[in-house]
Description:
Mean pLDDT: 75
Helix content: 25-40%
Structural class: alpha+beta
Strand content: 25-35%
Order of helices and strands: HEEHEEEEEEEEE
Number of domains: 1
Amino acid sequence: MKNGIVNIWLLGMIVIFIFLFSAYIIVNINYSKSFKIKNEVLTIIEKHKGVISKDTSNHNGKSIIRDGETITTNVNTIQTINLYLMGSNYDAMGYCPTGTDGDSPGNWYGVSILRDGGSIASTYEPANPDEKYYYCFAKYRANKQVGRYKASYYKVRLFYKFEVPAVESFFSVKVEGITDEIYYPQDEQSGSNENIAESDYTD
């Protein structure tokens, strides 16, 4: 009887160890993938010299999808990011900053739609703290200037999922990053009909 209890206890410990080890591996793989996706989103914003959603002929975006396959499209920043995320099978969602974590909610924007019918979506909206988004971004003014051109940079927030049974519903894990300084962003250029709100943060 005692041997049977000991065997059951050991079996339980082995099952728990396998579960925890598998969860650790899955979480690390998911986080590494999300970190790579976040870096590519930052690169896309830098190549487009900011975030702008209107279609214009001079926004030639390069999107890397499907393990290195590269396509060049005549799309804007938001469409390029959305195309890349869909090609990367990204489907995590979470909440944008609400003002309780050091950022003003009025300066954050969220993207809740990657595809609009048969085309790539190009819209974003002021972040609603009660709504989930695929990714969020905000524009910040850097305390730098070259000639008459002031510098700004963008902060992005993406998410990754715990694809582990019994815990994936309880966590919304964020992955954040900041672009390099961008001088004279697209949304500040003459003729642009959009203007992303900037925070008053400076270096």
